[in-house]
Amino acid sequence: MKQYLKLDEWSIIEESFDPATHEISESIFSIGNGFMGQRANFEEQYSGKSLQGSYMAGVYYPDKTRVGWWKNGYPEYFAKVLNSTNWIGINVFIDGNVLDLAKCGVKDFVRELNMKEGTLSRRFVAVFEDGKEVQVEAVRFVSVKRHEIGAIRYAVTPLNFSGTIKLVPYLDGDVQNKDSNYEEKFWLEVEKEAAADISYLTLKTKKLDFHVTSVMSFDIFKNGTKLDIQPVISECEKYVSAEAAVEANQGETVAIYKYVANVTSRNFGLGELVTEGKKLLEEAKAAGFDALLQEQIAGWADKWKESDIIIEGDVSAQQAIRFNIFQLNQTYDGSDDRLNIGPKGFTGEKYGGSTYWDTEAYCVPFYLSTADSSIARNLLIYRYKHLEKAKENARKLGFPKGALYPMVTMNGEECHNEWEITFEEIHRNGAIAYAIYNYVNYTGDKAYLSQYGLEVLAEISRFWEMRVNWSEAKGKYVMLGVTGPNEYENNVNNNWYTNRIAAWTMEYTLEVLDYLKANENARYLELVDKLKLQDEETAQWRHIIANMYYPVDEERGIFLQQDGFLDKEILPVKELAPENLPLNQNWSWDRILRSCYIKQADVLQGLYFLGDRYDLETKKRNFDFYEPITVHESSLSPCLHAIIACELGYQEKAYEMYLRTARLDLDNYNNDTEDGCHTTSMAGTWMSIIQGFGGLRAANDELVLRPFIPSHWTSFSFKVMFRNSRLNVSVTDENITVTNETDVPAAIRIYDNSYTVAGNGEIKVERASLAAK
Ligand code: BGC
């Protein structure tokens, strides 16, 4: 872990250039707008180590699965988010010498991600071998208002000479995915044209026929005056460029404004790509860089109005939480229900940019509370649309009915190829059911149940019904051969969490059926018919709920992670010599699987989801047993522990866990940020403040708060949307103030007292007196 970024409340700042941390910075300083994302690669040529990444949301490649030994049921491919046309490129030559920071000296380097405004900028002085020095200032953004548009301002000033500055903006589609299974290139050229005013390049994927057209245009200015230049254009395979040479005296600034539109066949017909791309580009260019920038600033101001968290007294924590919120808002804006949130967002290739249970378990709460409820609803509808595929997936594995959602997917098909995850980590089905409950409980949108929810719940319940079996020996239903959220043990029997979430899904499905029968009878009958739901099935679910087997240790008063857990040698992590950690980089997989060490919350995941069904003592006993043997080697782990620690009043532990989640990428805790940021766990960071320190829950149509302040902070405040009102909750040592920023009244409970915050009203309560109760 190396801390090299400067602390600042609104920006991420790097104040010197170090090739050793460049790939980490490329991840951290990524920009995106939900439709495209761009790693912080340099515009100019860079021959040092770099992970190129220009991603178009929803454009992926089914890369043929690579495994040592094929097993029946394996998916054919692993979906990859595609590195597509490099649209940011601008080669720079100074008197014929290429500007390349791997080869030039670099002075006064500053890179800044301005999270308030949504821009990435860079400033440096490059020193060439012949002693010539140029200053470069570059700013770029992908527009949050115009989803296809990216804009760059790149300015070069000769500092100690007069000479020729040649700028070569280009579009380069000859790119590769680093994680390509067979080192294959995934793109074919369709058409291109390089021209003085507008150039374009259309590529299509070798499989699935995704088309992406990138269109570019540019203007060049010297000392603020636009130049009338006839660029030299050129083309080659998957590449178009234009070349403009400008004579500049010492101190004169030559600036290029490069505008790009990236359009994909996901949103436009094949015959329209070039015309639509050109149209969008021309509109953006006509507006001009400054106007686009103003739009960008206004767009981000709106996002911050809904989701900002302010922490007083701790810049490091403030910067970290804003970074997490910023990356989440850059990744998904909810306006397209075909899209989802990959564990690395648009910041790297790892995890293929695909959808995991992370979305339902971690991201849904973030979008529920920080955006209009239609956004979280779209995330749910995404799974509804994949229901048929989930049913096919269950059939493929041999189940005559029910739906098994994939562990990893782009289009509803499973595309993960480790048997212990694909076949066994079936708890993901439970998280998808839980998200429906969570959404309806939080928003009150019960109509969702009859529109979409019940069908998903019923098919998941059917899957659980098929997956359990009756154990004569135990006189109970058991679930054999599973992997729980803790991927550090596989093929275990009766993972408590999986059994619990399975039974809970059936319970909730029955509850929803009862509700619909009583309240929307006609639709209920229609759905029962559509699902061909039999009374024997619901009776069987009841029987399973009543007779599910749960491993417990009576003596310790804890739930057991799985049947054989106590056969393991239990030794707290703190007694391991530090050189063992992280285990996944230092131990054989075999050793990890046999050990007691837990990758991420497992039993505790269940106690978190079903928190209202377990008392504090039960939570405490389980936390005290499991946390000391948890290594938190999944980024999804510390946040959940922070939330439960808050509930238990373990303030120091909560803060320790919070720091680990909040600055995971900024401080490269897991030594893997160069692969991309841990985007889905960023939602967990948000949860650890709101649900942890804020103690926020939704129950009985009220928003419940039980806040405390970590001793390192003087105050904190956060925004939350609840039932069409937006509240600003501010917590100081003395008071809790809730300000309603809308005209819709809100019902809230603070500790055990209920209040109504009138539209545009405010309530202030004394914390000490309430907390003490
Ligand atoms: C975790 C999974 C998670 C995946 C993607 C893994 O390391 O164990 O729970 O879904 O990462 O974030």
TrEMBL record:
Keyword Hydrolase: yes
The Glycoside hydrolase family 65 central catalytic domain, residue ranges: 322-687
Residue ranges occupied by any Glycoside hydrolase family 65 C-terminal domain in the UniProt entry: 696-757
Keyword Membrane belongs to the record: no
Xref: Pfam families: Glyco_hydro_65C, Glyco_hydro_65m, Glyco_hydro_65N
Gene3D superfamilies: 1.50.10.10, Glycoside hydrolase, family 65, N-terminal domain, Maltose phosphorylase, domain 3
Keywords tagged on the record: Hydrolase
MF term (GO), any: hydrolase activity
Domain Glycoside hydrolase family 65 N-terminal residues, every copy: 14-266
Entry's family note: Belongs to the glycosyl hydrolase 65 family.
Descriptive protein name: Glycoside hydrolase family 65 protein
Organism: Paenibacillus haidiansis
